[in-house]
Specification:
Layout (H helix, E strand, L loop, with lengths): L12 H30 L1 H5 L3 H4 L5 H41 L1 H10 L7 H10 L1 H5 L1 H11 L2 H29 L9 E6 L1 H10 L2 H9 L3 H8 L4 H11 L4 H7 L2 H9 L3 H11 L6 E6 L3 H4 L2 H14 L9 H4 L6 H32 L8 H4 L2 H20 L2 H20 L11 H29 L4 H15 L2 H16 L3 H23 L8
Antiparallel strand pairs: 1-2
Helix pairs in contact: 1-4, 1-8, 1-9, 1-18, 4-6, 4-8, 4-18, 4-20, 4-25, 4-26, 5-6, 8-9, 8-25, 9-22, 9-24, 10-15, 11-14, 20-24, 20-25, 20-26, 20-27, 22-24, 23-24, 23-27, 24-25
């Protein structure tokens, strides 16, 4: 089958009307459908990781944040590779092969979650493989940029990126629904612990019984449970009791601290403790789920799209070696565009990955704690929708003004999160505002993603091959967003239970990126109005 087109002249009105338009829109449709599954499989681990403790996997809080962060790390490196392979192999080969590669994490994770003895390193490798889905963006989007004339680039890129971004919401929306469906394998028992009911169990049990149950645990397990207690509280109890006996320390803890320590332990361990204290209790909730279905359901769609890509896609004859493509790094605007896109897409992807675990660990201790997966998909959904909608706006008014507005929106959101104590909460009353602010930030990231991808082809209008390369490169660096957000947020929560420091850092970066965008691309008389 022929891969390369004989010629491609999208700026030629006659060629576009008679030949180009049909091919371009067909290519956009196929690659966008594939990109949806790319984003979904990329963020698959972020929703599965939330469920792992309840299934009995003995992973720590830090390890769970690592599993959510690793796909972002992998995607960043893989996007760098994708940035340069499009002019070498062409759209048809890149898209078809990239779609098939996503079967590795999908099938691998499906089998890994069925056995609670699967070691952490296996999950880490599979999390890295999820990066295959994140890497695609840096070849799919430059491909779309090449297929369309300048007047439609903003619209086409906005449609592809926006609809592709829906894959994040798809993963987070479908997962809770598909858990009750058997695709392959037996069900698993998922255990959750009700914090308020835990407090009642402890209140109704004697100190002697609590000491007996706690003393029967392994020393390492006792330490892990006590590590869930805030350090000032633990230090004061140790000082009052004047003992190193962990069972004595545990029973001397305040009721609220004691219940939180158990509720924050691995759910299977917490269930064992609570059932020993009171066999008939409502604090332990068990439910049968098919966790493997959250991964396996992608398989058939990936196989179909790989076949469609191979048989229906063509490649534009714009071949260049890797060495020739390196010329983008000599241009200062490559680096400025990288900074602005890290602010927009890096924030979108970073919040998408970290949002579920932020809900779990910031608000999960309170009575009537929210289910992270009930809220998680709304953010990516809003960010994806605004990216599509503002792709059309960017074609009308330019992208630079939208990027500036995005920077201001992200800055304002971070300020509210910190000053209102929303990322160091003291009650569930703060949760609605927390969700509202995060969703607003998602909205602005979508606006900025549409704006930046309208800007890049204009800033590099003298060389469309370079423009495509810059789109791939900036997307590669911004793909590190999930890794950066998840690790830094996880470190903050582990260290002090809040995320204030991270969002202060985000404020500083938003100011820097917005200033660069305004000075070079937005202000009157700027160097590259776009």
């Amino acid at each position: 089958m022929k891969t390369w087109l004989d010629k491609w002249e999208p700026e030629n009105e006659t060629f576009w009307k008679n030949t180009g338009s049909k091919i371009a829109w067909k290519t956009l449709t196929i690659t966008t459908l594939s990109l949806i599954l790319s984003f979904a499989s990329w963020f698959m681990m972020s929703v599965i990781a939330v469920k792992l403790p309840g299934l009995g996997f003995p992973f720590s809080k830090d390890q769970l944040f690592w599993l959510v962060a690793i796909p972002g790390l992998a995607a960043g490196f893989l996007r760098i590779i994708h940035t340069f392979i499009l002019p070498i192999f062409g759209t048809r080969h890149v898209v078809a092969v990239a779609t098939l590669l996503k079967l590795i994490p999908v099938i691998g994770i499906g089998f890994a979650v069925m056995d609670t003895n699967t070691p952490f390193w296996v999950f880490a490798v599979l999390a890295f493989a999820c990066g295959f889905g994140g890497g695609d963006f840096s070849s799919f989007m430059p491909s779309t940029s090449l297929f369309f004339p300048k007047r439609l680039k903003g619209t086409a890129l906005g449609i592809q990126a926006g609809i592709g971004n829906f894959g994040v919401s798809l993963a987070q929306f479908v997962t809770p629904l598909i858990l009750s469906v058997s695709i392959y394998g037996a069900s698993s028992v998922f255990t959750s612990i009700d914090a308020q009911e835990t407090q009642k169990v402890l209140k109704d049990s004697t100190v002697e019984k609590q000491k007996e149950v706690f003393a029967a645990l392994d020393a390492e397990v006792q330490t892990k449970i006590l590590d869930n207690v805030k350090k000032p509280v633990l230090d004061s109890v140790c000082e009052v009791t004047s003992t190193n006996e962990k069972a004595e320390i545990f029973t001397a803890l305040p009721l609220k601290a004691k219940s939180k320590a158990i509720a924050n332990a691995n759910p299977k361990l917490a269930a064992k403790i609570l059932n020993n204290l009171k066999p008939e209790n409502t604090a332990v909730v068990n439910k049968k789920i098919y966790i493997q279905s959250a991964a396996f359901w992608y398989t058939s769609f990936l196989l179909v799209l790989a076949a469609v890509s191979w048989f229906f896609l063509k490649s534009i004859p714009m071949q260049a070696s890797i060495k020739e493509q390196m010329d983008i790094f000599k241009n200062k605007h490559t680096w400025f565009c990288t900074i602005t896109y890290v602010m927009t897409f890096g924030t979108f992807a970073g919040l998408s990955a970290a949002f579920p675990l932020m809900i779990k660990y910031l608000y999960g201790d309170f009575p009537d704690a929210p289910d992270p997966l009930v809220y998680a998909f709304y953010g990516p959904l809003i960010g994806s929708a605004s990216r599509i909608a503002f792709g059309f706006v960017a074609d009308k008014i330019g992208g630079a003004i939208l990027t500036t507005i995005t920077g201001i929106g992200i800055l304002a959101g971070a300020v509210i999160l910190v000053t209102q104590g929303l990322v160091s909460p003291t009650s569930m009353d703060q949760f609605p505002l927390f969700v509202g602010v995060i969703l607003s930030m998602f909205f602005f990231t979508g606006v900025g993603n549409a704006g930046t991808f309208r800007q890049f082809p204009i800033i590099f209008s003298e060389n469309q091959r370079q423009a495509a390369g810059v789109i791939g490169w900036t997307a590669a660096i911004a793909a590190f967003g999930p890794f950066i957000f998840s690790k830094l947020i996880g470190n903050n929560i582990t260290a002090n239970g809040t995320v204030n420091q991270f969002f202060v850092g985000l404020m500083v970066f938003a100011i820097l990126a917005t200033a660069i965008n305004w000075w070079f691309y937005n202000r009157k008389g700027c160097e590259k109005p776009s």
